[in-house]
Amino acid sequence: MHQSLEIKGTDVALNDLLQLQLLVNDLQALGKSRVHSYRKGDQRSVFKGQGREFAEMKHYWPGDDARQIDWRQTAKKQTPFVRIMEEDRHAQQAVWLDLTASSYFGTRSCFKSVMACHWSAFLVWRFLHLHHPVRFLVRVGSEWQQELNLLNQRDGARACELIATAHQYLANNFASLQPANSANILHWRGKPNLWFISDFMQTPAENLTAEIPVNLFNSVSLLQAADAFDSKLPEAGALPVRHKNITGYIDTAGKQTQQSYRALAEQREQSLQEFAWQRGGVFHKHLNESFQWQEVLAWPLYH
């Protein structure tokens, strides 16, 4: 079943997004395979609160809050169990898909934008399956933005239609797409847990800080669909680089150039990791050439 959901190509098909419902209903089946993750092990929970009502036990998964392990049940069953609180089962989630011109690119398997679209549909279906209210935002550059409130499966299908439409708009306009201005999200209430999907590696750091008001969200997690060339320049000789109507050239085959580019990518990645951690969330980067759906088990989801 999961092999048929492999992410490939340069286009987003509505039927592929709808089929992700099959995946969210049975995440435990994914646990039989190895989880590849940028960050593994215990992570801070994105669901916070005090004096909460206990709801049920569940098996521990990578990404769960180790502080919620129930040691009595763990000793009895000889396998880790964690406590789930009632508030966690109904926490509001916000999924923000931000499609940029730089995301319409990929050298292996699929475009980064295609992978981002599938992730956003997966999150929508997963949270609806868990009966979380979902606020969904899709933005394409500075020209196209749509927002939905999702409560049921029919709403999930509408969100998938919106994702497919947004990606088609990106495909038709990526060459002339202008960077987005700050999104109008100040009307959001309830401090949801934000899942922000964008091409952060190609976006100025100050843009991200301006986009997300500190007190608007309970937590902020960042998901980056990445290509190998995000951290390694193609060895193509003299590569033209344009900035503010000025064109220059860099020697991509030069060792120092490659090292500097890689160091900048690592620095950017670290800053994104710290940004999310400071806001109670996580940063995950997955490569288009090797992504498997088992990797989502490392995201701080309620399984």
What are the defining features of this structure?
29% helix; single chain; 20% strand; 2 domains; alpha/beta; 6-stranded mixed beta sheet; 303 residues; Rossmann fold
Descriptive account of the structure:
The protein is α/β, with parallel strands linked by helices. It has two domains: 3-29 and 88-298, Rossmann fold; 44-87, no CATH class. Helices cover 29% and strands 20% of the residues. It is built from seven helices and ten strands. It has helices at 14-19, 21-24, 71-77, 112-129, 153-173, 205-211, 255-278; strands at 54-59, 81-85, 93-99, 134-140, 144-150, 193-197, 219-226, 238-243, 246-251, 283-287. It has a six-stranded mixed beta sheet. The chain has a two-stranded antiparallel sheet with strand order 1-2. A two-stranded antiparallel ribbon has the order 8-9. The protein is globular, with a radius of gyration of 20 Å. It holds the Pfam family DUF58. Residues 56-267 form the DUF58 domain.
Write the SSE topology.
Layout: H1 14-19, H2 21-24, E1 54-59, H3 71-77, E2 81-85, E3 93-99, H4 112-129, E4 134-140, E5 144-150, H5 153-173, E6 193-197, H6 205-211, E7 219-226, E8 238-243, E9 246-251, H7 255-278, E10 283-287
Parallel strand pairs: 3-4, 3-6, 6-7, 7-10
Antiparallel strand pairs: 1-2, 4-5, 8-9
Helix pairs in contact: 4-5
The N- and C-terminal alpha carbons lie at a distance of: 19 Å
Low-confidence stretches: 33-52
State mean pLDDT (0 to 100 scale).
81
Tell me, briefly, the overall form: globular
| Largest sheet, strands/sense/barrel | 6 strands, mixed
Looking at the overall shape, the CATH architecture of the largest domain is: 3-Layer(aba) Sandwich
Q: What's the CATH topology name of the largest domain?
A: Rossmann fold
The total count of strands amounts to 10
The helix-and-strand class reads alpha/beta
